[in-house]
Predict the 3D structure of the following.
Amino acid sequence: MTVEDTARKGKGTVFVRMEVCKGCSYCIDFCPTHALDFSKEFNQKGYHFPELNRPEDCTGCDLCGLFCPDFAIFGARWKDLDEKRQQAASQVKL
Amino acid sequence: MSESLDLRLALAETELENPVLPYLRQDRIPHIWCPGCGIGTSVNCFCRALTDSGLDLNKVAIVSGIGCTGRTAGYLNLDSFHTTHGRAIPFATGLKLGNPELNVVVYSGDGDLFAIGGNHFFHAARRNMDILVICVNNFTYGMTGGQVAPTTPVGPTQTTMPLGNFESPFNLPFIADACGATYVSRWTVYHVRQLAKAMKEALGKKGFRFIEVMSPCPTLYSRRNRLGDGVDQVKYYKESSVIKNGADTKDIGLGFQGEIVVGKFVDRERPTWLESMNDHFSHVLGDQFTPYGVKPEGE
Amino acid sequence: MKADPKGVLSGVHFIDGDHAACEGALAAGCRFVAGYPITPSTEIVERFAARIPKVGGVFIQMEDELAASIAIQGGVWAGHKVMNVTSGPGLSLMMEHLGYAAMTETPCVWVDVQRGGPSTGLPTLPAQADMMQIKWGSHGDYEIIALSPNSPQECFDLMIKAFNLSEEYRCPVFLMMDEVVGHMTERVNIPPADQIEITDRKWTTKKPGEYKAYATTSEDLVPEMVKAGDGYRIHVTGLTHDERGYPAMDVPNQAKLIPRLLNKIRNNTEQLLDVRMDGCDDADVIVMSFGITSRVATAAIEAARAKGLKVGNLRLIICWPFPVKLIQQLAEKVKAFVVPELNMGQMVLEVRKAVEGKVKVISVPHPGGTVHEPETILEQIIEAAR
Ligand SMILES: Cc1ncc(C[n+]2csc(CCOP(=O)(O)OP(=O)(O)O)c2C)c(N)n1
Ligand code: SF4
Ligand code: SF4
Ligand code: SF4
Ligand SMILES: [Mg+2]
């Protein structure tokens, strides 16, 4: 998943490594804005993984990232991502 | 808006990596912990605490005993020691005294630290050995299949308490407090932000520091006692916790699915074992003694 | 490398074996001890506690032997040379950590001042009855090295050798003293520091990233070492592990690791041969002994020789690994072996195993508490020579 793939509807977004998710639903249950749902698909290990179904509600607070016991998800604010983008851009010779 | 390939690659590197990955031995992930096991959440918080602590990670060492929690040492990308059952604290004592420059963290389970390793806990706290002890309390012996632990509340079934536990459990912060720890707090894996903050705070302090982390073991504790999955236990933590910083540790024992008092209970200053040794020998021996493990000034 | 003069108390001293052992450790570079008192070994740690503040290092008395025997290993991974000091009951408690040291290849010296057992037994009286415990007492297959001094001077000398061997082979090395050697006072000559040869740790020259904690070659089965805090981010575990030190609990890794742990010592049995032989070339009977018993055996051998018997005196300095080949060679020439020891027959089993029934092997056991009467050994020599 890249930044460009996600429409900027809310203040932030999430990044999911679906292949390491074990489907515990911590991220889904404890997201303060209930922005996540389980996917319909399964990953290779047979678990449903989280999807950002209500991107407009995601604040990028990264609480999902803190909760995840499998280091499979994290959230970030667009603002912070943009800053990182700029930093990265300044380091890359275009 | 279209960007060059270079820029896209740079973005991919800076943006898309989970912030905790650099703290983990990525060639060992996925870890062995069950779905919904809280140990991973606590480790996640610990990684955030390491980031926020600003410590030189080459000088942070992690020591674990044996158990599910004991596997933590093997996943963290630090100098890491997976020792024997119950003996993480004395190993850490040797490591710390061997090189006082190291910031030594013990990360282990409730059975490891308080059953087989109880004696070491008491004495390291009494001596004010300069280590941080993080205990993941899942109220059971996870690794061996859910036997009764010194923390199991009265009531729930464990494989060696098939009719329900009738032994009284330990109140861990009370023990740590009574033995002289300089920092004592308890959080649950529901309190991820507070836990990460407490870990950071404790990493920055001196002396024997203790953090109890209540954590679900869905496989062997909650499901067996019809308490649901990990997420159901964490919901219980959420609903039944009250934050009482500075609470008297003798009043905060845990009952079966009862009220949970969380917070920071102790934060005090005491000379560490090594400081006491250096002070004492300097006093008695004068110039004949060179303080141990203290960098000469100007270095 | 030469000894650090700070730890070397050069000169002639009149001290007992326990004190001499402590001086040996200090001379060898030991600067960290975590101990727990137990008769008759306590004087070693008492002296260490008294000497270390001025030498520069740390002594800590732990809460028990379980703690002491693992705290020292923490000290090793922080970069120190360490020793673990105990006697019978303490040694029994330490067994799990003997296996941990062997498995993690943590160089360390273990001093056992042997007393009568089993259990609390004879706290203040001698025995040599832990010889099999150190070899077999921790679970699983492992190898150790053991040295056996028979005088305070040797407590000093062999302590240094024990430290050097522990660094060379990265394994626990035992100094198997006993109550008599520990408490006997004799002249001990401590040479100047520049005459004491010290083996440095096998530090790696590789950089973090290139270095694998347990990588070895077919020529050299002992891996290179690093310490915590140097940026290598090592992982050390008592679980079966791969070259990186990561847990790898499967048959191939077990099949690779365990033979290496054994062979790094077994393949060097010849280099590790350390015996004293006197009159063995044309002997009819050889008396094999070690430690304090060798002194009594020598008296018995002299008495037998005075009677015209051809008796060889074979004393083991290094008891483990056991010198199987040497015993087999000698078995070609002699009628019998006589093996006095302060136990009910331990090292004699190794002699029997080596000679495979070719010659007579006579055990001269003793339940401990004192040393043999020379006459008891003499009787068996005469019996053997018949
Ligand atoms: C000396 C010894 N005794 C027993 C065991 C078996 N054992 C392994 S882990 C464990 C209990 C671990 O419980 P805890 O410390 O609470 O860790 P958890 O698995 O719950 O995280 C036991 C009894 C052992 N490995 N070593
Ligand atoms: S970043 Fe925050 S708001 Fe967004 S999904 Fe994660 S927890 Fe929910
Ligand atoms: S918290 Fe992590 S492991 Fe659990 S469902 Fe969410 S992404 Fe998957
Ligand atoms: S058994 Fe329990 S403690 Fe162990 S990994 Fe599974 S859930 Fe976690
Ligand atoms: Mg537990």
User: Anything to note?
Assistant: The first helix of chain A runs from residue 26 to 30. Helices of chain A lie at 26-30, 63-67, 78-91. The beta strands of chain A are 12-16, 36-38, 50-52, 73-77. Chain A touches chain B through 36 residues (CB under 8 Å).
